[in-house]
Amino acid sequence: MMKNRIIGTFTIFLFTAAFIACSGDSGKMPGKVVHNPITASGESDMKQLPVIEFHENVHDFGTVIEGETVIYSFKFRNTGNTDLVISNVSASCGCTASKYTKEAVPPGEEGIVTVTFDTRRRRGFQNKTLTVAANTQPTNTVLRIKAKIVSPGEL
Q1: 48 and 36 in contact (C-beta within 8 Å)?
Q2: For a tag on the chain, would you pick the N or C end, based on fewer CB atoms within 10 A?
Q3: Sheet holding 86-91, edge to edge
């Protein structure tokens, strides 16, 4: 009897854990905005995809005093033929945070990816990246920020 109760409790635990794990938001691109341009015949239809074009992919903050927080907005345009959706922006460092246009960007319209760089406990030349994941081909676009961090006495 005790053995059956343990097995039953363990089974309920496993079922609950599996349900919770499978029901969460995995951060993946929603299926309704994904368009696979490769057909079953192997032909591709790249004209039906959104295209993300940034005005610039690298921003140099120049010389920054350690401890300052600097912000820059990368502007982009959707030059494709369908709505562009950014699913995630990930930074190469915990000192860098980002915000981005969450709504679908129609063809011809613009959006932004804003990066905030905290220079506390940083010195010298810094080179950080942001990876923008969107429903484009290729899926990822890499943006880069750089700066020379100096102490207040070095100016």
Answers
A1: no
A2: N
A3: 58-65, 140-150, 124-134, 86-91
Q: What is the pLDDT of residues 145-155, one digit of tens each?
A: 999 999 988 77
Q: Can you read off the two tokens belonging to residue 129?
A: 């990246």
> Does residue 59 register a pLDDT over 50?
yes
Taken in order of first residue, the domains within the chain and their CATH numbers are 31-154 (2.60.40.10)
> Is there a cis peptide before residue 106, judged by omega within 30 degrees of 0?
no
**Distances in whole angstroms, Cα of residue 35 to Cα of each of 30, 67, 97, 130, 136:** 11, 43, 29, 24, 9
* Tens digits of residue pLDDT in 1-30: 555 555 555 555 545 554 444 444 444 555
